[in-house]
Amino acid sequence: MLSGLFTRSAASAADFTHLRQARVELRDVIKQYDGHRVLNGVNLTVEPGEVVTILGPSGSGKSTLIRLINQLESLSGGDIFIDDKPIGQLKGAALRQLRSRIGFVFQQFNLYAHLTAQAEHYAGAGVCAWLE
């Protein structure tokens, strides 16, 4: 499945410069730390233009899920696609390019002190609008 992506240079095969709104798909995503499974078979599709908020109790894997999409963490299993392109094996310029097109807001210590969680969600939607 990944062979077609990497027969050419990763940077040219995985060109994300066109992205303003993209489809993000997670298929059977698994993440483990030292044998402890923190994400188990997550499936999620975010359509172009859709703004999504991930809510859940502390330790439920919200930040881990987002870090996987941005490739700040490596998958233990499953696949992540941006506009139908697998991103799990990106490196170098292609990975930097992908990261430059993805934005997210973390919780707790990275919160904007003057905003509620709901306001942060809408701030993310505003950033998407600024890019258009």
Automatic annotation (TrEMBL):
One protein family per Pfam: ABC_tran
Membrane topology per record: Peripheral membrane protein
Subcellular location: Cell inner membrane
Gene3D superfamilies attached to this UniProt entry: P-loop containing nucleotide triphosphate hydrolases
Record carries keyword Transport: yes
GO annotation, cellular component aspect: plasma membrane
Domain ABC transporter span(s) in chain numbering: 39-119
GO molecular function, one term: ATP binding
Keyword entries, A-Z: ATP-binding, Cell membrane, Membrane, Nucleotide-binding, Transport
Family: Belongs to the ABC transporter superfamily.
Protein name: ATP-binding protein of ABC transporter
